[in-house]
Design goal:
The protein is mainly β. 6% of the residues lie in helices and 36% in strands.
Length: 364
């Protein structure tokens, strides 16, 4: 009975294709025994209380990273408004910052919160960046150097680039962007509204990761690499992923890191349904993922000199709490390590509030 129930649950996920399995007809038909992956336990997201301007999902948090013991949450436009033509209007620029001690008090010590981040100014004026769409990611190296990933508006040819911008956090508590030495990063596809959204520093080298890594859209996924002076180094291979990669953690001492992998059914680049995903076929589909069309999961990676590899372990599936049609899909755009788990943050969706969550990770 357990095997039958598991099989029914695994095959119950909604498919984006019109084909459906047909029942075997005729009396005395022999049903072959097919190995079925177990139903994995989905991880609960513990929502942490937020307050202040960050609570408005309109700020569109698009990246998150530890800068020492300060957790930096990056608004897509650094707090700027847009005109009717989606051009950023110059004004005060900032990121949101939470202290590690304040988060520990809420997550570990029972402090009811809320967490109300302060704003740290960012200079100089970013509206000078041609075609600027927004700041999509942040990675910070062991030496305290920050690396922002910047997206530009998609042009008709689809050859608009991403940018890498170095940054430093000064003693005056202001983050300074080195816009004069920003580096152009060609996109590996022409898809609209797609950019390099994730990055990490390993062995003094900054790695930039494109959000599309599916063979359906990008034939040979790769991590773009730059030295400390932002001089390009040869790319290294990156694993094929059917769904969008929105952010990654900093690597551990042994080169392992976690990444957010998200499927939104309303996107043109959504990829196949969960039923058709090799990772789900191998490790099983969780109970809520078997009945919903969107996917929210965390994957583990290993970086080596030869390339980035996907660690052979089950994805961490997040327990889904709403149907995506009701804007219940949580578009997680930032992730960092925290204690025995990770913190993850959403962007504009689901409205109306930004969600900061703690997810405890299973042991290897």
């Amino acid at each position: 009975m357990a095997l039958i129930a598991t099989a029914a649950l695994t095959m119950g996920c909604r498919s984006s294709t019109p084909e459906h399995a047909q029942p075997v007809e005729g009396a005395g038909a022999v049903v072959a025994e097919v190995p079925v992956a177990p139903v994995p336990i989905e991880a609960a997201v513990r929502d942490l209380p937020l307050a202040g301007d960050v609570l408005d999902s309109g700020t569109e948090i698009s990246g998150m990273a530890w800068w020492g013991d300060r957790l930096v949450l990056v608004p897509e436009r650094l707090g700027l408004e847009e005109d009717p033509n989606e051009v950023n209007i110059a004004g005060p620029q900032y990121v949101f910052v939470l202290e590690r001690a304040a988060i520990e008090a809420v997550v570990l010590n029972g402090d009811p919160g809320p967490l109300n981040p302060r704003k740290v100014s960012v200079t100089p004026d970013i509206t000078s960046i041609a075609g600027l769409d927004g700041f999509e990611g942040l990675a910070v190296g062991p030496d305290g150097t920050g690396y922002f990933l910047v997206e530009t508006h998609t042009n008709k040819a689809g050859d608009n680039p991403s940018y890498v911008v170095r940054a430093s956090w000064g003693s005056d508590d202001i983050i300074a962007l080195d816009l004069a030495n920003k580096v152009t990063l060609p996109r590996p596809s022409t898809h609209s509204n797609m950019a390099h959204e994730a990055g990490f520093v390993w062995d003094g080298i900054f790695h930039a990761l494109y959000e599309l890594n599916s063979p359906l859209f990008v034939p040979n996924p790769a991590a773009a690499r730059f030295d400390a002076e932002l001089k390009p180094i040869a790319d290294i291979p990156f694993p094929e992923l059917l769904y969008r990669l929105t952010d990654v953690t900093a690597p551990s001492a042994d080169g392992r890191f976690w990444g957010l992998n998200f499927r939104f059914p309303g996107s043109k680049t959504k990829g196949p349904a969960a039923c058709e995903c090799p990772l789900f076929k191998k490790f099983g589909i969780g109970r809520t993922h078997a009945t919903e069309e969107h996917v929210e999961r965390i994957l583990e990676f290993q970086v080596t000199d030869e390339g980035v590899e996907l660690v052979d372990r089950a994805p961490v599936l997040l327990k889904l709490d709403h149907d995506w049609r009701d804007k219940g899909a949580r578009n997680w755009e930032g992730i960092v390590r925290f204690g025995d788990g990770v913190l993850a943050v959403t962007d504009k969706y689901p409205k109306p509030h930004t969600r900061l969550g703690f997810i405890r990770l299973p042991s290897p």
